[in-house]
Please model this.
Amino acid sequence: MRAYVLAALLAGAALGVACPAHAQPEPPPHIMEAAEAGGVAVWIDGAYHDRGSAVMVYGYSTQDPVTILVLNPDDNLADVHQMDAAGPFLLELDTAGPYWKMDGWYRLTAKAGPGSEPFSLVVGVGVGCAPGSIPVDAGDDGVHCMVSEGASAAVLDTPAKTLRLYVHEGGATLQISRYLLDSRAGEGDLPFVVMRGDSPASYEEMAADADSRTIAVEEGGIVSISGTHVIPEFGAAMLVAAAAAGAGAYMSRHLGVFRTRLG
Model:
């Protein structure tokens, strides 16, 4: 069935179609860094979109062709596009399409040419995190919400026990729930290991309680925060409670968590 849907979508896919009504913004620094390292990177005009709205996908590729694949919340194919795009590109996705009928988190993956690394992010359609929170893409462990100011594009690498995200210029404050990521020895807390590239990043732990730890990261760029404990180690009961706590729907395409501050 998926192969049939893929063939149908490819038959109608936009092959290098431009969107003249929308200006192509300059790729932000973390997108250029990711594209140069892996071959392609994308960002979107907002982490949350209302049902029936358009999702603007901006990207940069060092190779072509570029393939954009979208899976719905059940991991079934919702959309696919291919284009020749070495350099900046722009794509408009219509959430009113026949394969976008579910509310929830859709995973968008871009791949460019042979040997490139897939680049993924999530977009909420008809559902999202509460204001002041950003989605954290934990892969097979789902999408979770984290209170944050000044950060976006958060991904939790569970095997590495590492949270990776983009910190905007001027720094960011992150309230990291212990059910997502923690660093401890026995009953005591250990410092997180915070890196920007291959170098330690300056940060300060602002507060800690039984549920979360709040840190302030001073430098902008792609930041990695590593700990000792991550989602699967907390058990199903904690995950259910955490999911319930972060399940507030906020249908707005204007928060733009993945939208980089371009000026």
Residues 1-21, 234-263 have pLDDT under 50 and may be disordered. The chain has two domains: 2-125, 133-245.
